[in-house]
Amino acid sequence: MRVTRDLDLAEECVQDAYAQALTxxxxxxxxxxxxxWLTTVARRKALDLLRRDATFKRALPFLVDDSVDxxxxxxxxxxxxxxxxxxxICTCCHPALAQPAQMALTLRLLCGLTTxxxxxxxxxxxxxxxxxxxxxxxxxxxxxxxxxxxxxxxxPERLTAVLGVVHLLFTTGHTAPVGSDLVRRDLVERATDxxxxxxQLLPANPDVAGLLALIxxxxxxxxxxxxxxxxxxxxxxxxxxxxxxxAIAEGLALVRQAIAVxxxxxxxxxxxxxxxxxxxxxxxxxxxxxxxxxxxxxCEIWPSPVVALNRAxxxxxxxxxxxxxxxxxxxxxxxxxxxxxxxxxxxAHMLARLDRYDDAVAAFExxxxxxxxxxxxxxxxxRLRRLQADRAES
Amino acid sequence: MAQYLVLIYGDESALEAAGEQGxxxxxxxxxxxxxxxxxxxxxxxxxxxxxxxxSIRSNGKGDFVVTDGPFAETKEALGGYYLIEAADxxxxxxxxxxxxxxxxxxxxxxxRVFD
Lengths: 394, 115
What we know:
The complex is a heterodimer.
Chain A: H1 7-28, H2 34-52, H3 54-59, H4 81-92, H5 99-110, H6 115-121, H7 126-142, H8 155-174, H9 185-201, H10 206-219, H11 245-260, H12 266-279, H13 288-301, H14 305-319, H15 321-331, H16 342-353, H17 357-370, H18 374-393
Helix pairs in contact in A: 1-2, 4-5, 5-7, 5-8, 6-7, 8-9, 8-10, 9-10, 10-11, 10-12, 11-12, 12-13, 13-14, 14-15, 15-16, 16-17, 17-18
Chain B: E1 2-10, H1 12-17, H2 19-36, E2 41-46, E3 54-58, E4 64-68, E5 77-86, H3 89-96, E6 104-110
Antiparallel strand pairs in B: 1-5, 1-6, 2-5, 3-4
């Protein structure tokens, strides 16, 4: 892609390479390094196009114009393949681009999704997504967002944006914000692939290890998150024997690496929490004190009302519903949590455990009105009905 | 190389409140910035206070409405600018980060080139 120095052209070449991959791999099998193969094919396509029409190249807006006059073939020689992808993801996730645009560009250019598929991933019209992508690419060209891996001093800041995009892709896929499916497998798989790619490129980085660990450990539960009828199963209802043990083993090894050097980062701590769950034989027999302690550390380096809310749930398990409710009340007024359905849902569970029936019913109803994912709504309704049934019996 | 306009935004009342010492510190900051980035600087000016601004709007039919005040009322007003030369946006951002803007921040805009 560095060959072309032009995103539009790079995009076409990536598309062509993917199309060719499907044809070739069906007849001759998947090569040892599919990523490298794709980049090589994309590069060859780019060279073909550039040689065919040198003026075409000059007419297009360049990412970096310091080598406009160079022969395209000269630009190929020093291209280490993994670096090309790191360069591309650093450009896609440049902080001068808005985060939705960063995610869209990453899916389009690194994962090779079509504009239609990217539009579907973000539940916007194809037209709107095409406009967003065009706007971003125009900004990259007009403002000259460089196509390169930032210098070491800037890399941590940039890596934060890159990891943020991959993490957001994963969470968007893990619990789809709206719609009739709980999980968007495609987004989860893209995020996992990107995290693995980053891991390959930056094997010593603890934040990268932490993010991949978090994704693997969380996704290890995916087969057990809904039952056969599509009803959502919470952590306490899941059949833990069905969790993906290979993913958990890989995730645990990565967590150990992520926390081995220096104070653990945000993803390492979240992964460590997921690791405690992965290692626990049941919801009740989870080391809740350890979970609370990890959330305490997370609150310190990543203070967010959502983290505080999750911490309150852990407190309710470690120290009882009253302590949990106190912790929840301490953050309930945060404006960021206004309209956040997990707040009344968590409150409802704690109130039910405290036998505050009417308050619990009201909290469940609040949570239902705030939720847009149909599977989650069904779960809340089921829990509300169960509470009402328990009440009727007693 | 490309050119970028670095627009400096700030809260004028904060500058007033900072008094003479604050003003002197700000000026020293700009002198230091200028000395350090001499090669990249292609121009720049400080503007008079926003209370001296006059806005002229056209109705599109040849008539103009002239009013007192800036084009858009904002807490942080445009107070000055630098025209800089940089290889790319990252270099421009690195320079822009050094511009003193104690009560606000800066906006970086690439200069449009017509060919």
